[in-house]
Amino acid sequence: MTVYTVHEPPPRKNEDMADPDRFVFVRDGFYFWAFLLGPLWMLWRGLWLVLLLYVVATTAVQAALWSLGMSATVKFTVGALISLLVGFEAASLQRWTISRRRWNNVGVVVAPDLESAEHRFFNSWVAGRPSAPQVTPMPPPSMRIPPSAPEVIGLFPEPQSRR
């Protein structure tokens, strides 16, 4: 099963709520195309600031490796490791970009594919069920009701004083 986070855009000027067609589902996991073609994947997804930071960071790392006189094998290995990191963190980079655009994270859905995730989320959203379970607060200790039976059930005996 795959985990998706659901993000709601801010409503437009004439809307009181955002259009459900504009919701974004971000799959958690490894993104192969972000690993293989990182900058193009970032352009395709509209992650402009992430792309800028990626270009600056990789250029700085490669320049530092060049100034230290590292071999081409080391430079290639470091570049491959950076690409691997981008592949693993692609979903986090998307979520970071979405949160910078002031979108709200409205839920988490576990489903085998995107279509099933959309069905599950919108079925619960339309039904008005909250995405997180409601927690009822505990009453203060002075208002708690003592147990009705004086005996303890289980392996523990009645509390007694030691002599």
Quick summary:
This protein is of the alpha+beta class.
Plain-language structure description:
With 163 residues, the chain is of the alpha+beta class. The chain has one domain. Helix content is 47%, strand content 12%. It has helices spanning 32-36, 38-45, 48-67, 72-100, 114-127; strands at 2-8, 24-27, 104-111. Strands 2-1-3 form a three-stranded antiparallel sheet, sandwiched between helices. Helix 3 (48-67) packs antiparallel against helix 4. The longest helix has 29 residues, at 72-100. The protein is extended and about 70 Å long. The mean pLDDT is 84.
Radius of gyration, in angstroms, nearest whole number: 26 Å
Q: What global shape is seen?
A: extended
Largest sheet, strands/sense/barrel: 3 strands, antiparallel
Give the distance, in angstroms, between the N- and C-terminal Cα atoms. Answer: 59 Å
Strand order of the largest sheet: 2-1-3
Which range best describes the helical content: under 10%, 10-25%, 25-40%, 40-55%, 55-70% or over 70%? 40-55%
Mean pLDDT across the residues is 84
Secondary structure elements and their pairing?
Layout: E1 2-8, E2 24-27, H1 32-36, H2 38-45, H3 48-67, H4 72-100, E3 104-111, H5 114-127
Antiparallel strand pairs: 1-2, 1-3
List keywords for this structure.
single chain; 163 residues; alpha+beta; three-stranded antiparallel β-sheet; 47% helix; extended
